[in-house]
Amino acid sequence: MTEEEIQKMVQDAEANAEEDKRLKEVAEAHNQGDALVHSTRKSLAEYGDKLEAGEKEKIEAAIQDLEEALKGSDKAAIDEKSAALSAAAQKLGEKMYADMQAQQAAGAASDDAHSAGADGHAEAKPQQDDVVDADFKEVKDK
């Protein structure tokens, strides 16, 4: 390559740097929006029955709006619709968190009930003291 060709390539790269940066930002916003739609749909399928009908409809509408924005390349629109979906899905997150807390509390109470004996006193768990730590030497017969 000649020095002239190298200089032309450098100028082209500099001229396209802004466009490349914009395209990268749009791609990142698009990927984040896709991930948000996917995770929200998954959570909605799992915990949607615990929401009020109005809340569920708001989340579904926000998903639709974001999906429409993802069809284009307007970063501002994608960011706006992603924020709207995040806000709408906040109630869903609260329900999921409350459900997880209840399951953990129920699991802890169940574990306590299982470890208590018939008289209500906790039984000692058997310890495994039959482990022997020793060195050995292999002896071969001649």
Distance between the termini: 76 Å
**Any idea of the CATH topology?**
Substrate Binding Domain Of Dnak, Chain:A, Domain 2
Order of helices and strands: HHHH
Q: What is the CATH C level class, in words?
A: Mainly Alpha
Query: What gross morphology would you assign?
Result: flat
The largest sheet is: none
Number of helices: 4
Structural class, from helix and strand content? mainly alpha
Strand content: under 5%
Just name the CATH architecture: Up-down Bundle
Roughly how many Å is the radius of gyration? Answer: 30 Å
What is this entry, summarized?
This protein has 142 residues and is mostly helical. The protein is built from four helices and no strands.
What does this protein look like?
It is built from four helices and no strands. The model has no long low-confidence stretch (mean pLDDT 84). The protein has helices spanning 3-47, 53-70, 75-88, 90-115. The protein has 142 residues and is mainly alpha-helical. The chain has one domain (3-114): Substrate Binding Domain Of Dnak, Chain:A, Domain 2. The longest helix has 45 residues, at 3-47.
